[in-house]
Amino acid sequence: MNSQNEAPNVTEAEVPEAPQADVFYYQVQFRPGGQFTTATASIADLKVAELVVTHTDHGPEPATIKGAGFKWPDQQSKKNSPSVKIQRRAGNDEIEKFTRLLEREQEAFAIGKSQIADLKLAMKLIRVERYSNGSKIIFYFTAENRVDFRELVKGLVQEFRTRVEMRQIGVRHETKLIGGLGCCGRELCCSSYINKFAPVSIKMAKEQDVPLNPAKISGICNRLLCCLTYEFDSYRQIRKKMPRAGKLIQLDDQTLKVLHCNVLQETITVAPPGDRDNKQLLNRSEWEQAKPVHPQPPQKQKKTKK
């Protein structure tokens, strides 16, 4: 019999697990007009437009809350949580420091633009970003060809007394940094949530029956619209099941030629061969019953021996 001073035996299964802290997800923005980024926090009551201090790969950075937080229901999804984490709310001193940081970036942009003009470099300065800890300053620029900017970097290092990095970007990245409104009336996808640019081809526009008008299928960057990739796979999968335009099908002992396919409505327009005026519209239940007609290859005539 155990004495009162003797501790009872406790197995590992009986030890209660420590409760896991709830994780809340927010949308944050590091610079005005910049891209939204998903961040995690253990704080549940952060408000929109509130300034917070985040932990990034290069150290602490201020950010503004742009989307209300929500608790992720699946605990297993925490393994794939974003790399940006909100540490705490920003204090008054940090809010003033962030305001000053934005002003210093504008000053650096003006200085960089002036030095580019003095050196007569064929490049266009797009944006300047400074790390809040002062360890680095990044200059984003565009250029049609390679630019020798060694003298420019020397002048910028002497001016700012910190590490200077020059990043050449393309026209799509330029539009992403500047931002704007698309032809749909909403904020550009590249400046709002797209992290990586997917390749876009004219084939995607043809597959979706989009008019091949450069003014209609090009974005502000004068490149093909990124949104052409969104529904391309769906169109391709549906179109595989539908008879293709120009093919012959057999329906109720009648041979018909497919004139047009409407992927969204899943209908096809058909007509008897040689009689395009007698068109008819077939829905999915009708054209699924049709059978393809394979034209017979022409028979080769046997050569007679003389």
The CATH class of the largest domain is Alpha Beta
Number of helices: 8
| Order of the strands making up the biggest sheet | 2-1-4-3-5
For the largest beta-sheet, the strand count, sense and barrel status come to:
5 strands, antiparallel
Q: Which geometry do the CA atoms define? A: elongated
Query: Terminal Cα separation, in Å?
Result: 121 Å
Which class best fits the helix and strand makeup? alpha+beta
CATH architecture of the largest domain: 2-Layer Sandwich
**CATH T-level fold name of the largest domain:** GMP Synthetase, Chain A, domain 3
H/E element order: EEEEEHEEHEHHHHHEEEEHE
Describe the secondary-structure layout:
Blueprint: E1 24-29, E2 36-41, E3 51-56, E4 59-71, E5 85-89, H1 92-119, E6 124-130, E7 136-142, H2 150-160, E8 163-168, H3 171-178, H4 189-192, H5 202-207, H6 214-217, H7 232-241, E9 248-251, E10 254-262, E11 267-271, E12 280-282, H8 284-287, E13 291-292
Parallel strand pairs: 7-8
Antiparallel strand pairs: 1-2, 1-4, 3-4, 3-5, 6-7, 9-10, 9-13, 10-11, 11-12
Helix pairs in contact: 1-2
